[in-house]
Amino acid sequence: MATASPSVFLLMVNGQVESAQFPEYDDLYCKYCFVYGQDWAPTAGLEEGISQITSKSQDVRQALVWNFPIDVTFKSTNPYGWPQIVLSVYGPDVFGNDVVRGYGAVHVPFSPGRHKRTIPMFVPESTSKLQKFTSWFMGRRPEYTDPKVVAQGEGREAQPG
Amino acid sequence: MAEVHVIGQIMGASGFSESSLFCKWGIHTGAAWKLLSGVREGQTQVDTPQIGDMAYWSHPIDLHFATKGLQGWPRLHFQVWSQDSFGRCQLAGYGFCHVPSSPGTHQLACPTWRPLGSWREQLARAFVGGGPQLLHGDTIYSGADRYRLHTAAGGTVHLEIGLLLRNFDRYGVEC
């Protein structure tokens, strides 16, 4: 059986983190990063970013708008490990500390063209009630040490969300 | 060898009567299929919806198969469980769906069912929890012994699956 020589292909991602809807929270900023397999590498652009802090608009929409650019190009030889964009949203709590308001991840679309994705966000939750109270009081919510965990399939059963 | 990439997410579940849900998923293929990269099964986190009634998992699936034949086209199967505040788990539904066969992105909604049991078992499930479960997981995706079961409907599992096919035209398959 003849083996085909690996051919390199490029994936160019241009877009923006447009806006968010968080009915309960305000003054939020977001961070994005990409998670990809071993056969992938970024060749141009930035694979991480932190946005500005945005407040809800005063009108009916209550929109939180970032309009934060994403501009990155990957090269790869294998579709396995297709990049995922991981978003983490942070905001202040009652006491003024910066706490995480949501994590989410989605695969970069596979077909060329214009795509719009809405990503549901989730927050890790402590399992004991005492810990929930102390973390609310002290402003130290459960947080992932590395947000890239959100993009992985293994080890999720231990996390209540 | 023809290759198939299944890349996507188990987005979440809706329509279940319980709220804190998690899902155990797996993929079943025929004998001619070989998994080159990726994990064949997994379990999502437990999600409790704060807004609305849909539990979101966003659990990534990334599988790379090589195959010599079309028989045994991959099927994803799910077991949705609910977890209560004491940490006990109860079955909410079983379901399966075939992986699509045309390349591109697909939105899939997989309905689920759960075995009912006798009236005693149903009463016990309402008060104490628990309830009958399948002994052999392959009944979820095979039709062989289904006639023995009496089941009730559960909610729906939502998936977004992207499919990439490679070298199928060499084997005379148009896609």
TrEMBL record, chain A:
InterPro entries: C2_B9-type_dom. GO terms for cellular component: cilium. Its main location: cytoplasm. Residues 1-19 form the signal peptide. The keyword 4Fe-4S does not apply. One of its GO terms (biological process) is cell projection organization. Belongs to the B9D family. This is B9 domain-containing protein 1. The lineage of its organism: Eukaryota, Metazoa, Chordata, Craniata, Vertebrata. The gene is B9D1.
UniProtKB/TrEMBL annotation, chain B:
GO terms for cellular component: centrosome; ciliary basal body; membrane; MKS complex. One of its GO terms (molecular function) is gamma-tubulin binding. One of its GO terms (biological process) is cilium assembly. InterPro entries: C2_B9-type_dom (IPR010796). Signal peptide: none annotated. It is found in: Cytoplasm, Cytoskeleton, Cilium basal body. Its main location: cytoplasm. It comes from the Eukaryota. Keywords: Cell projection, Cilium biogenesis/degradation, Cytoplasm, Cytoskeleton. PROSITE patterns: C2_B9 (PS51381). Belongs to the B9D family. PANTHER family: B9 DOMAIN-CONTAINING, B9 DOMAIN-CONTAINING PROTEIN 2. Component of the tectonic-like complex, a complex localized at the transition zone of primary cilia and acting as a barrier that prevents diffusion of transmembrane proteins between the cilia and plasma membranes. This is B9 domain-containing protein 2. It comes from Pan troglodytes. The lineage of its organism: Eukaryota, Metazoa, Chordata, Craniata, Vertebrata.
